[in-house]
């Protein structure tokens, strides 16, 4: 297990400071605000701490309200909206400086039998082991900028292997523009069997590349184009159990952008082709001078 993953797992081990109130911290970071996937993952951990172990999260719906400040802790207040015979509903508010920066509603469900079908087929893509790492691909693209090289090649908790062009590649070559992105990812460690942990780690990873799918369609890239962006909302549905320490293919597309906003949606498949997660996100994409 690399140090970046150890740090992430430590960040997800929230401190309980009162009944249904938890405190989380952020990694020391100078380049960006608090990562949205981190806040979503920590909020889901807080909710899960208040739910019986026999109920697994099946959906979440979240709004990013204000930028997070990485220099101060985040307080998560959990409201117990409903505890039914089969479903449990929680509302989580993340607070910094006395104001809400993020809200989430999460629903948990006991395991039940039912009708089953899967209309989505996993895209035909190369095996992840045959693809270069994200760090290897970004090293050359960062050029002679030492700060960018350090940022793009630093150890990360998630091993991501891109099937599709990177935004920086499409920025330099317009022929690579596309409104679709396929990325293999996994956490390189033997993780505990806790189902909530694997869902939380998928939520964390889900926010890495969705907005990039919008940028890819226009040949734009963070740090290279005159853009300012931020996640606005995020929704996920968890269909069946999976492991985040096994390869998952994250197939994404952006069906629309306009009015300084863009929509992206994704599906996560196991290596055997089972659809395990569906994701939708809207983001602000604002052109700057």
From TrEMBL:
Transmembrane segments: none annotated. GO terms for molecular function: fatty acyl-CoA hydrolase activity. GO terms for biological process: acyl-CoA metabolic process; fatty acid catabolic process. Keywords: Hydrolase, Lipid metabolism. Gene3D superfamilies: Acyl-CoA thioesterase, double hotdog domain. It catalyses: a fatty acyl-CoA + H2O = a fatty acid + CoA + H(+). InterPro entries: Acyl-CoA_hotdog, Acyl_CoA_thio, HotDog_dom_sf, TesB_ACOT8-like_N, TesB_C. Residues 179-282 form the Acyl-CoA thioesterase 2 C-terminal domain. Residues 31-109 form the Acyl-CoA thioesterase-like N-terminal HotDog domain. Homotetramer. Belongs to the C/M/P thioester hydrolase family. This is Acyl-CoA thioesterase 2. The gene is tesB.
